[in-house]
Write a structure and sequence with these properties.
Elements: H1 9-44, H2 50-67, H3 74-96
Length: about 100
């Protein structure tokens, strides 16, 4: 008994082009992260990857949220300080992982 499987070439080509489009989009979205990675690498004189750069950005955002004055409740300020502490710890772990 002979079995035949037909593969439509347009479907595989379409799948490849979708994957390529997604890769191009993610590369385009990550360009600012790559630029910041190079900038931070120059500042601390160590090569940083995207993950380490994202942890540094997270720590900076937590610091800004905790420091800037705003009319916030004590609970929100405590949460901001906890976020900042957690962000610093994760940043330290990421930078020492090299």
């Amino acid at each position: 008994m002979e079995q035949r499987i037909t593969i439509n070439a347009e479907n595989t080509k379409d799948t490849i082009s979708k994957k390529e489009a997604i890769k191009r989009l993610t590369d385009w979205l990550m360009e600012p992260i790559d630029w910041l990675s190079e900038y931070y690498s120059g500042l601390i004189e160590e090569k940083l990857n995207r993950s380490q750069t994202l942890w540094l950005i997270n720590a900076q955002a937590a610091l800004i949220a905790a420091v800037f004055p705003a009319d916030l409740s004590l609970m929100v300020r405590v949460i901001n300080m906890l976020w900042f502490g957690w962000a610093l710890e994760k940043c330290r772990e990421a930078l020492h992982k090299q």
